[in-house]
C-alpha cells in the first residue's frame, strides 16, 4: 500500500471514531483514505475529494468505491461546504484531512507538466478539464503580474529577469513545453543555488497561480471549521512556507479570538467567537520516514479541534 506523507501522524491527529464521519479533501492515490477506512466500523462514513480527474478515475479509486462506506467527489477545496451540505452532514463531520501540494502521480506523469525534470506539455493544471494551462497563462499574463507571481509565490529573486525573458520569448514563439520553460529559466538566472534546480521556484510559482492554490486553501480552512461537529478535528499537511503560514495563522486566529492584551479578560461574545482549539505543536516526519521518502522533508502537519 502506498503510504502518504505523515500517514500515522495524520490518523492519530484525526482520532478516528469507528462510527464517525470523515472527509479526505485530497484523495490523491488514496493512501490516507485507506488508512481512515481501516479504522472505521460498519457505521462510519468517508467522503474523499479531488479536483484531479485522473485521481477520481484511477483504478485504486474505483476499487475503493466498492466499499459502501466510501464516497468520492470531483471538486475543488472551495466546494467542501457545498458537497457536505448536499449530504446533510453540515456540523456533523468528525474529522477533515487536508494534504496540500502536488501528488506523486501528477509529478511522475510528464504529460501533466508539473515536473521540470521531464519534458512534456506546459500544463500544470490540477484539473485538466478547466482553466488556463501554464502555457496559455504565460502567453497572456502581463510582465508586471508575472513578476509579482514569481516573487510572491516562488520567492524568486530574479523574477524581473525571468518575466522579461518570457515576454521577449513569446513575441517570437510562445512557450509550449516544460523543457522550453526550463531552458529559458536556466538562461535567465545568472546565479545558481546549491542543491536547488533553477526551475524549482518558477515552476512552483506558476503552478500556484494558475490553480489558485492559496485562495483555495484559505476557503477550505474556513469551510472545514463550518462543517465540523463540536470536538471534530482538522489535520492539515503543508509542503512549503506559503501554505503553512496560512494554516498557522488561521488556527492561531480561530483559537485565540480577535483580542488585544488591553481587553483581557475576554468578554463572553469574544469567547463565543473562538471556534478552534490548537492541539500540540507542528508535526514533522521522523528519521525513518525521511529516509524512506525524501518528499516528506518539507511536510508540516498542524491539528486543531472544533470547540
Backbone shape? globular
Strand order in space, largest sheet = 3-2-1-4-5-7-6
Count of folded domains? 2
Beta-sheet strand percentage? 15-25%
SS summary, helix count? 15
Cα Rg: 21 Å
Q: For the terminal residues, how far apart are their CA atoms?
A: 35 Å
H and E string:
HEHEHHEHEHHHHHHHEHHEHE
In the CATH classification, which architecture of the largest domain applies?
3-Layer(aba) Sandwich
The helix-and-strand class reads alpha/beta
What is the CATH C level class of the largest domain, in words? Alpha Beta
The major beta sheet can be summarized as: 7 strands, mixed
Spans of 5+ residues with little confidence (pLDDT < 50)?
none
Percent helix range? 40-55%
**CATH superfamily name of the largest domain?**
Vaccinia Virus protein VP39
Based on the model shown, name its key terms.
single chain; 307 residues; alpha/beta; Rossmann fold; DNA polymerase, domain 1; 45% helix; globular
Amino acid at each position: 500500500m502506498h503510504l502518504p506523507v505523515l500517514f500515522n501522524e495524520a490518523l492519530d491527529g484525526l482520532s478516528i471514531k469507528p462510527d464517525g464521519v470523515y472527509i479526505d479533501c485530497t484523495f490523491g492515490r488514496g493512501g490516507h483514505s485507506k488508512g481512515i477506512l481501516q479504522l472505521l466500523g460498519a457505521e462510519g462514513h468517508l467522503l474523499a475529494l479531488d479536483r484531479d480527474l485522473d485521481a477520481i478515475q484511477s483504478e485504486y479509486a474505483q476499487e475503493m468505491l466498492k466499499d459502501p462506506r466510501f464516497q468520492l467527489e470531483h471538486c475543488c477545496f472551495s466546494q467542501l461546504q457545498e458537497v457536505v451540505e448536499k449530504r446533510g452532514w453540515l456540523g456533523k463531520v468528525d474529522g477533515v484531512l487536508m494534504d496540500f501540494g502536488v501528488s506523486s502521480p501528477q509529478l511522475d506523469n510528464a504529460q501533466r507538466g508539473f515536473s521540470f525534470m521531464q519534458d512534456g506539455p506546459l500544463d500544470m493544471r490540477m484539473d485538466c478539464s478547466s482553466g488556463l494551462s501554464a502555457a496559455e497563462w504565460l502567453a497572456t499574463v502581463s510582465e508586471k503580474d508575472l513578476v509579482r507571481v514569481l516573487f510572491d509565490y516562488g520567492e524568486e529573486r530574479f523574477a524581473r529577469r525571468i518575466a522579461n525573458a518570457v515576454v521577449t520569448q513569446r513575441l517570437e514563439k510562445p512557450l509550449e513545453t516544460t523543457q522550453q520553460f526550463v531552458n529559458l529559466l536556466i538562461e535567465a538566472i545568472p546565479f545558481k543555488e546549491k542543491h536547488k534546480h533553477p526551475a524549482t521556484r518558477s515552476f512552483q510559482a506558476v503552478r500556484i497561480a494558475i490553480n489558485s492554490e492559496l485562495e483555495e486553501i484559505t476557503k477550505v480552512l474556513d469551510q472545514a471549521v463550518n462543517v465540523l461537529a463540536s470536538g471534530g478535528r482538522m489535520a492539515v499537511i503543508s509542503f512549503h512556507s506559503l501554505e503553512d503560514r496560512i494554516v498557522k495563522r488561521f488556527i492561531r486566529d480561530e483559537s485565540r479570538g480577535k483580542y488585544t492584551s488591553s481587553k483581557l479578560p475576554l468578554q463572553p461574545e469574544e469567547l463565543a467567537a473562538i471556534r478552534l482549539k490548537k492541539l500540540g505543536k507542528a508535526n514533522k516526519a521522523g528519521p525513518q520516514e525521511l529516509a524512506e521518502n525524501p518528499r516528506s522533508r518539507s511536510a508540516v502537519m498542524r491539528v486543531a479541534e472544533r470547540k
